Amino acid sequence: MSWDKQQMAARAAREIAPGSIVNLGIGLPTLVADYLPDDAGVWFHSENGLLGMGPFPYEGDEDPQLINAGKETVTVVAGGSTFDSATSFAMIRGGHVDLAILGAMQVAMNGDLANWWIPGGKMMGIGGAMDLASGAKRILVLTQHVTKDGEPKLVRACDYPLTAKGCVHRVITELGVLDVAGDAFTLVELAPGVSEAELAAKTGAPLRTR
Amino acid sequence: MEHTSGRHRDKVRASVADALAPLFDGARVMVGGFGLCGNAEALIAGVVAHGARDLHLISNNAGNLGKGLAQWLRAGIVKKVTCTYLGNNDDLHAARESGAVELEVIPQGTFVERIRAAGAGIPAFYTPTGVGTVVAEGKETRAFGGRTYLLEEALSADFALIRCHRADPFGNARFWRTARNFSPLMAMAAKTTIAEADELVALGAIDPDDVHLPGIFVHRVVEVREHEDPFEYRRVRARP
Q1: Secondary structure class of B209 (helix, strand, coil)
Q2: Is B90 exposed, middle or buried (0-12, 13-18, 19+ CB in 10 A)?
Q3: What is the pLDDT of residues A101-156, one digit of tens each?
Q4: CB B201 within 8 A of CB B168
Q5: For residue B230, is it within any domain?
């Protein structure tokens, strides 16, 4: 037993304080928006120049000039705004975005994040990843616990190129919730049916249970 | 003292070819748009028709799905690309792998701030983005308030090609939704900015409080009413 992707997204949604500004990374993090209560008062920021991003449009309402950072058609909620990229990154770099939920290739126990390129693989680019990782007030990583080959993604030190140093606060995987603690990961919560022994075995760094 | 007449009259051009006439080989060309969103489609196609080569393209993505700026890569008129994200742009991956194009990939916030700085007369600035990463290699760092920052230099261009929703003959412009993205900043950073407007309106038709990009940053305007505006990734949900 462990969490499926929907359950991971639902767990991540519980990390979002009411009234926050949140940026959701491409991929798994985009699912998180579906698990927020309507009255949460959360505003989604998309770095291509949109604050107050809503769900995908109804068929027939899609506008090719209203997209998210993944270049998917989206909507804008009442009270939303559109702006240029310099303003958008001022929001990020200036510390106005409360939380960014990002994917990861590796997270180190000191909070280093690698999420843009695995050397030898296809280099997709940097996009807004480095600005978000170093600029948002809090970084939550949402990722599978191990790679497709079973290698730990939570490690002592990243060997892939870094996105930012010491930026990650918390990690949610299908196995549980862990905090970055400098010389170890700290267990916050186990997914149902997952043992501490299994979590420790699949984590490539010391695991502290409290 | 050399005296040249001002550039801020007679900006409206009758055709795309006329608007692009000053383009030259080896030019540094900024092109607005986030992927295919907010592309100056007619100007992009017009550059291929113009015949200028060895261009240094400065744009967030350099096209996708064979569309937009991917046309420049296919036409072989680009020698260098400065961008932030390749994604699934197969033309750019191929041009990089074959060595046909020199590729520079930089963080998006740094990309746009370097452009903004050039337009604002600031030669360089410190940013926290990229510290401790490959982006920092060879760059000066300095600590402010106990945090380390990277020195990044302004990024300017010979031309900026932008798409706007509405423009007047002075070049005052408004944008539509997320099509604005890099365009207003690129307009500031280029020696010559050429705007492709969905609609050309009379002076005064845009309320001064509603101007997104003041005409001081725009030098040539061409009206282009028809656009493909392709969906890059069309996502919809069922109606309830």
Answers
A1: helix
A2: middle
A3: 999 999 999 999 999 999 999 999 999 999 999 999 999 999 999 999 999 999 99
A4: yes
A5: no
Whether A67 and B232 lie within 8 Å, measured CB to CB: yes
Q: Which of A112, A123, A127 sits opposite B84 (nearest CB)?
A: A127
Token representation of residue B28: 């540094």
Residue B159 forms part of a structural domain: yes
> How do A99-102 and A106-108 pair as beta strands?
unpaired
Q: What ipTM was reported for this prediction? A: 0.96
Measured between CB atoms, does B181 come within 8 Å of chain A? yes
Q: Domains along chain A?
A: 5-208 (3.40.1080.10)
Domain that holds residue B57: 15-112+155-223
Determine, yes or no, domain membership for B50. yes
Q: How many domains does chain B have?
A: 1
The sign of the torsion formed by the CA atoms of B39, B40, B42, B44 equals negative
In CATH, what number is assigned to the domain containing residue B51? Answer: 3.40.1080.10
Residue B236 has its nearest CB partner, among A67, A73, A76, at: A73
